[in-house]
Every structure is written in C-alpha cells, then in structure tokens.
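new request in #modeling-help
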Amino acid sequence: MRLEVDIRKTLHSRDRSFVLEASFSSQDDLTVIFGASGSGKSLTIQAIAGLVRPDRGRIAVGGELLFDDSQGVDLPTRERKMGYLFQDYALFPHLSVQENIAYPLKKTWCFGLLPEQRQEVAEIMAAFEITHLAQSLPDELSGGQRQRVALARALIKKPSILLLDEPFSALDSMLRHRMRLELLEIRQRFAVPLVVITHDPADVEVFADTLVVFENGGVKEVSRRRQQPEPVHANVWRQKVCWRAKWEQEQQAQAA
Amino acid sequence: MPDLFPLWLTLRIAFFATLIAFGFAVAFAWIVARFTFWGRDLLDAILTLPLVMPPTVLGYYLIVVWGRNGWLGGWLYAHLGISLMFTWQGAVLAATVVAFPLLFKSARAAFEGVNTEYEKAARILGDNEIQVFFRVTLPLAARGLVAGTMLAFARAMGDFGATLMIAGNIQGKTQTAAMAVFDAVQVGDYTLANTLVGIMSVVCITILVMTNKLAARRVNYET
C-alpha cells in the first residue's frame, strides 16, 4: 500500500496560528506516525480521512487520488472508503453493539438488514468474539470491548486502509499490550494496511515498518525498518523515539 | 357544566404553534450550533427576543407584518383574500412566536451537546450530511428537543398579550383559556375561572415535571 501525503494547512486561533507542513510517503502496510501532542499528527490523519481540508497539497492512498488542490480533487469523506478508529472509539451511544457494527451497511431506518448483511454482522462479531455483547449499549462495555466493537465497525465495509488515532491511549497498560497483539492479528486476517498515530514508543516497536516522526507541525524524519542495520537492534529503532535512550546516547557522546 | 370551548381552542392553537415553531427552531438551532458565521450572535439574539419583549410589543410587530396592510399580510389579503387578523390561525401565529425561543434555546443546547466526533464517525462510515443529521445528530439531541417542545407547548397554551393583539378576544372564535379566565374574573364567574385555572395548572405542572425528568436523563450522551 502506497500512502503519499504532501499537505499544508494553517490553523488560526485567537492569538496564535499553527502551520502544518507534512510531506512523507510510505510503502509499508504498517506505518506509524509518531510525535508529541500538538505536533500535527492528528491533523494529518484527519486530512487523510477527509475530516479536515488542507489548504494546499496532495493526498493519495494506494494510487487513488483523494485530494489535490491543483487538480481540484477533494473526495468527500464518505467516498474515501477509509476505516478510522477514533481515540475514544466514537461508538454511537444510542445504538447497540450490533447496530453500531451494522451502521455502515444499513442506510435507512425503516428497512431491516438484508439476510446476507445480517450474516456479515454475525460473522464479524464472531471474529472479534463479541457475539454475546450484540444487544449491549456502548456505555455497558469495558475499554477493550469497546475497541473491538469499534474495529469491527471500521472493518465491516473492508476499507482500503485503517487509520488509528492513538488507539491504545484509552486503555490501561496491561490491556494495551494484549490489544496491540490483537491488532496485529486483525491486520493479518483482514489484510488491511494500518496507519497508527501515537506518542507511545512501544507502538513504534510493534507497528512501525515505516516510521514518520512529527515535530512542531512538520515531518522530522522518515525511516524504514527494512533499511535498519541487520539484525534490527531494538535499541537503534527505539532511539528514534525513546527519550531515555536518546539521553543516554547524548551522555555517552559527551563522555567520549 | 362550564363552557370548555376555550380549552379545546387553546390546545388546538398550542398544538399547531408548537408544530410550526419546532420546524423553524430545529433548523435555526442546527445552523447556529454547527456553523460559525458573521452575525451569529446577533441572529441568536433576534431569535431569542420574543422571550424578553412585552407580549403586546410582539403583538404589535405581528400586526405590522401580518396585518391587512402589513408586509406579508397585505400581500396575502390582496392576492388570496386571506387575513389572519381576528382568526384562530392568527392566534396560532402569536403563540408560535412566543413559544419559538424556548424551543430554539433548548434545541441549540441539545445540538451543541452532541459530540461532533459521532458525526465525523458517521461520515467516515459512508453517510452524507442528511443521513448524519437524521441517524446521529437528531437521535442524540432527541431528549433535549422533546423537553424543549414540551416547554414551548406549555408557553403556547398560556399566551395572552400577543394573541389578544392579533386575534382579539372573540367568544367562541378566538377566546383562549387564558382570556376566558380574564373575562370570567371580570364578570365574577368564579366557577368557570376555577375550572379553567385548575385544568391549565394541572396540564402545565405535568408538562414541567416530564420535562425535568427528560432533562435529567439526558446527561448520559453528553461526553
């Protein structure tokens, strides 16, 4: 999956303005966009999903042009065929788990789902082991269950790419590790490329085949796991994002 | 048995007034809640104005606009031969205007209470803007809208001044419960006054209690 982003967007608030100038591309199916909060990474994936309109630039996913101001292309969000996992999952609070998952399939109120759609919902609920929760409301679920429901809802229409906004930040650390592994499995099963934005170095270790580091509204560095010296020494990879390792490196350099 | 025609008329007027106010209030509230534009605060103030202005002033405005020589009323009378003056439809107009701000305010708060993230999620899941509104925004704002509607209905039932200005106080035609109470007290018919006051009080208290219950339960969705 090829992801190409080259956008510019200025945001104004009362007394300051923020300029995002993001340009990077990725050819891997696992891309991590890493940066502190306020570095522009959220804005970037919102632009990919079509929730935010860049002032200028170009966005293409898998060869399909989604946005290009010079050609006047700006595909509406609903036509971009994206999967998107919100930070707090954004499960519709007035709908049951089953209705949430069926949401993208059902386009009217009055008619129920077709039998094959019902089958589809049942299958994906079974795949995520949430069949027993079908009638529950999102309020009644635990963090891990909510994430599974949100993933099932995002994946039922077989999106071309799945964008995840800080996917594990709402979970406690024990659960976080398990959900990371689950997400890797899901990626395999649904063969969907992932773009994960995060400020957690652990996510980088697990998910980054391509790592894009954001800083102050710009791309600081793009690196690929494949191009790291073999065998991939965990520390080399971690040094890019782990402040402790970076600090130690600097200390050593100073000592030498 | 006292003449209960004013009561039925009041309910009929309040029903139609609430219906009309609902349509306009929801549309304006959605626009004001979801978009930022020049003059938004002014628009909000104008739409809230009937809440604070003396009802007779409102009634005067209504005559200026809808009277036989008014901006809209003049056209209606000249082309269709219709006049709203001194008709129960005119009373509906007055009740609509006085009830509108209550619905508008509640609807605005209800729409602003809906986290826009749900709307974004719906768009990503393939909804167009109309679907987003009817499948996500409206259901999530429903409790606030129902509460506002009930308040508006109660207010529409109780209007006196604006209705008097435009529809008059014609017994058996435009005399609402509020006016019948006034007349009954004037002529010393306390049986009729007590009956009407009693029924209206019970209806209004019921509506307010139900509104409070709805408002208390609404908290769930507001995150």
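bot summary: The radius of gyration of chain A is 20 Å.
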